[in-house]
Amino acid sequence: MRKKPFHLAASAALLVTLSACGSSHTADTSASPAATAAATAAASSAAPAAAAGPKTKLTYWTNDRGASDHIKAEIAKYNAENKDNIEVEVTIMADNYEQSLDVAFASNQAPDIIKTSGSNFAPFIKKGYLEPLDTYMTPEFKNRFKNLIIDDGNRVDNKIYSLPNYGITWRLIYNVDLFQKAGITAPPKTINEMVETAKKLTVAGKDIGAYGFAGNFKNNGGFGRSASPIVALSTGILDGFNFKTGKFDFASQIPMLEALRKMKQDGSMIPGFELLDIDPLRAQFAEGKIGMYINHASEPGVYKNQFPAKIKWSAAPLPTVDGTINGASPFSNATVWLAMSAKSANKAKAWKFIETMYGPEVLKTYQEDSVGISAVPDVLAVAKKPGFANMDLFLPNKYDALFPVVPAVTPEGKNLGDEALRYILEGGDVNKITTDLSTRYNTALDKARQTGTTKNQPIPDFDAKNLQGSLVK
Questions:
Q1: What is residue 51's predicted lDDT score, i.e. its pLDDT?
Q2: Alpha carbons 13 and 17: distance in angstroms, whole number
Q3: What angle do CA 177, 207, 307 make, to 5 degrees?
Q4: Which phi and psi (to 5°) does residue 384 adopt?
Q5: 236 Cβ contact list (under 8 Å, min separation 6)
Q6: What would the pLDDT profile of 269-307 be if each residue is shown by its tens digit?
Q7: Could you give phi then psi for residue 245, rounded to 5 degrees?
Q8: Is 146 exposed, middle or buried (0-12, 13-18, 19+ CB in 10 A)?
Q9: 234 with 321: CB under 8 angstroms?
Q10: Which residues contact 135 (CB under 8 A, 6 or more apart)?
Q11: Which residues are 190's β-sheet partners?
Q12: Which residues is 313 bridged to in the sheet?
């Protein structure tokens, strides 16, 4: 029996519900022409379902609004073509996604398939929302993801609850026009070169009010975006965490702290960077007011749709501390995607849908349509060049890789972002600052291990260089 529709009072959470058949459900008219055409073509050319009788109705909830047209087209195609007598109804949500799921599970109206993410994956497991997938996966299916199974990323207590689809690579984004104006022929390869390049760009851009470097330091975001990928590529230490020792070591961040401090001192950082969020930064870059910044694979879509770039821009692999690579560049937000509800009444059919969605023919369309960069090696091997300009510059190279999960802890006192910003603005004893940070974070980590909040342990044989080539050779 089909579940009754779920409604959350006084919420704008439910945006779109799509079903391929039945007069009470219609496709959302906001879908792009391409998505509508794809769905129509799929419906008109599909072979009839092999099974007879009533269809099994499955519900799929996602908050992936940025991919809504793509998702609707894929679901319409699946509903028209699958031979398992399955009909999937997708609900694309806006705000209050997690709260809506809480209410749905409490009222026994939970969806069958859930889109999960790094931020809600652990809470969903703790609440008992997700079904382990191990017994459903064949050895051949599981082998496709052999380098992508990450403890606390998609596997908890030796049970796999989700698998990757797409994620984000980190690159140095730069203003080609301003580089040419400054006579700079190539992006920097080291952080010292980055500091000098920022200075030259600022001099060249003085007449138009442009600055060499920017970071979105509002809400503690800027230092992590600017420093963490560079330090991970240089040393294998991610977000200040040494996986080999199982301890935080913020001395690893000193070269980037000093580089950002120097750019602030010599006037190469755009004024007001300490109050800058990512979208205002992007708007300034699109206008030609910023020479360089560090961010991820969302930028091609941003400069095509949100802030159409008035400049020629490009992206390059990250510089390193001293020109050597002793780690890997983190492939972020890529460990999880679809999960099965622990309360689904149709788990076998739900798995059939999930298995199809994780097939290379479906996954490759996410990259080809510029929804995101694939994390799955056999998809990267067959996917065509993405449609958006410059998206190909973010495709994984041999240095991009999934890292283990850094344990989430809350230290007493100021966190890394706060202390980093204060140092960049005011200076101070950088060794004393990073030693204090390491002590406070490790104290919090010890408490988290004692209470079971994290199960993270040292990985004595960990070497981030061994992660290289895990996505592409």
A1: 52
A2: 11
A3: 50
A4: -75, 170
A5: 243, 326, 327, 328, 462, 463, 464, 465
A6: 999 999 999 999 999 999 999 999 999 999 999 999 999
A7: -90, -15
A8: exposed
A9: yes
A10: none
A11: 320
A12: 175
Give the span between the Cα atoms of 69 and 459, in whole angstroms.
42
**Per-residue pLDDT at 220:** 74
Q: Which pLDDT belongs to residue 90? A: 97
For residue 429, the tally of other CB atoms under 10 A from its CB is 10
Encoded amino acid at 217, one letter? F
Q: Do residues 368 and 151 make contact, with C-beta atoms less than 8 angstroms apart?
A: no
How many angstroms separate the CA atoms of 364 and 372, rounded? 10
Distance CA 118, CA 128 (A): 16
pLDDT tens digit sequence for 107-136: 999 999 999 999 999 999 999 999 999 999
Instruction: Decide if 108 contacts 344 (C-beta within 8 A).
Output: no
Cβ atoms < 10 Å from Cβ of 138: 8
Per residue in 24-64, pLDDT (tens digit) is: 332 333 333 344 344 444 444 444 444 567 899 999 999 99
